[in-house]
Design brief:
The complex is a heterodimer of chains A (about 70) and B (about 350). By secondary structure, chain A is of the alpha+beta class. Helix content of chain A is about 65%, strand content about 10%. Chain A has a two-stranded antiparallel sheet with strand order 1-2. Chain B is mainly β and about 350 residues long. Classes of the chains: A alpha+beta (about 70), B mainly beta (about 350). Chains A and B meet through strand 1 and helix 1 of A and strand 15, strand 16 and strand 23 of B. Strand 1 of chain A pairs parallel with strand 16 of chain B, so a sheet runs across the interface.
């Protein structure tokens, strides 16, 4: 349901979304999902890179606490 | 019947009794005058009726009437008839001036003094004539005419009635509209008027289900890069352009930070977890410049299990005057509803 308030007259209309608004809603949804997929992929890549770096540190016998102690 | 001195054994006729009865009831024959008149002794107990289009007087002199005598005085004519103290004194709590169709009783308290009881006392008739008139006062009751639209009543001692209608002082905040959302997927404020700033303030927004996000658009504009935002306190040091942190692509405050002024997954049932915040839009009615905005809002994302609070500044990258503000669903299928004692309010600042 969409509510439209005419602030000049005070008229309030509650009505279902029309075809154009439903179409825009679909576009918004598509754009949102695309942007979210990119953001999720970036977050996943970042997490994977972090895990890989931690694995390399572990192979060297180091931990994140060691890096922190070095001021890195 | 005029005042009589009855004698022992006198017999009254039926006509005399009828006349006497009428006189006692303020009826009976009237002595009609068409010009100013001075009362005489024979007027005691009678009706004197003035009927003149001109201003007239009825004069009252001393030594003609006894204490307890009365004269019923009417004015039938268009001209005002004034009961006037000649050599006698005439007291009155009201007016001695009788407009057309007014009347009164002149009652003598002594041979030289009378009191006039005006049937229509001053103040008994309303001075108001027009829709919206107010009752005012200076030295008498008076009409304060209704003022022009949108003016306000203001005290002013220099005015004859101490009040005037004046233009409301500018600089205030006006509640343009307030609504309580109930299962809405979209809300649009249109015809926003012409103020210097808009402030949208809200609280208690809760979604019907998780999986949805709600944003704001101006002029329902969904063009890419039309909303340029940056989170206050963020690490970005560049200008409000390009791919700065928090930049928006297709909806207000909808950018890399996934910030939703009307919430995302806001389904947790708690006052503190409902979506709340405000947005200030400056110079929104301008058709020559872009419009800056500032937004502060927060909510509990029930899917992420995290509170999210956002402070943003930005601008609407369009010189078109903003005539509508839309809250819209960007994803999912939820609706939003105001919880108890909350609302969505739009203010204009002048």
């Amino acid at each position: 349901m969409k509510r439209i308030i005419n602030c000049e007259t005070g008229e309030v209309i509650d009505r279902p979304l029309n075809q154009a608004e439903l179409a825009q809603q679909e576009i918004d949804k598509t754009n949102y999902e695309a942007a979210k997929a990119i953001a999720d992929a970036e977050a996943e890549a970042k997490a994977e890179a972090k895990a890989a770096a931690q694995a390399k540190l572990a192979a060297l016998g180091l931990t994140i606490d060691d890096l922190t102690a070095l001021g890195l | 019947m005029a005042k009589q001195t009855f004698t022992t054994g006198q017999v009254l006729t039926a006509a005399q009794m009828t006349s006497l009865q009428q006189t006692a009831m303020l009826g009976g024959d009237a002595s009609v005058k068409v010009a100013s008149y001075t009362l005489v002794a024979a007027d005691a107990g009678t009706t004197v009726a003035m009927n003149s289009a001109s201003t007239t007087t009825i004069t009252v002199n001393t030594g003609l009437f006894a204490a307890g005598d009365t004269v019923f005085i009417q004015n039938r004519g268009a001209g005002v008839c004034t009961v006037t103290a000649g050599t006698a004194t005439v007291a009155s709590a009201g007016s001695l001036a009788l407009p057309q169709n007014d009347a009164g009783i002149l009652y003598f308290t002594s041979t030289s003094a009378a009191t006039f009881y005006d049937f229509i006392q001053v103040g008994a008739t309303s001075p108001l004539t027009t829709k919206g008139d107010l009752y005012g006062f200076s030295t008498s009751d008076q009409r304060i005419p209704i003022g022009a639209n949108n003016t306000v009543l203001t005290a002013d001692s220099t005015e004859s009635l101490g009040l005037k209608w004046a233009t409301a002082s500018s600089g205030g905040m006006t509640l343009i509209s307030e609504t309580v959302a109930s299962a809405l997927s979209s809300l649009s404020f249109s015809s926003l008027g012409s103020h210097k700033q808009l402030i949208l303030a809200y609280a208690g927004i809760r979604h019907s289900t998780t999986g949805s996000t709600f944003g704001i658009r101006l002029n329902n504009n969904s063009s890419a890069n039309v909303y340029v935002t940056q989170q206050i306190g963020g690490s970005h040091t560049g200008s409000f352009s390009g791919n700065a942190q928090g930049d928006s692509q297709d909806s207000l405050l909808n950018g890399n930070q996934a910030s939703w002024p009307f919430g995302e997954n806001v389904t947790f049932s708690g006052v503190q977890t409902d979506c709340h915040g405000y947005i200030v839009i400056d110079n929104y009615a301008s058709s020559t410049r872009t419009k800056t905005f500032t937004a502060v809002f927060g909510y509990y994302d029930n899917t992420a299990g995290a509170y999210k609070f956002k402070n943003f500044v930005g601008y609407f990258n369009s010189t078109t005057a903003i005539t509508s503000l839309d809250i819209f669903r960007n994803s999912g299928s939820a609706t939003f509803t105001n919880q108890g004692n909350t609302s969505i309010r739009l203010y204009g600042v002048s």
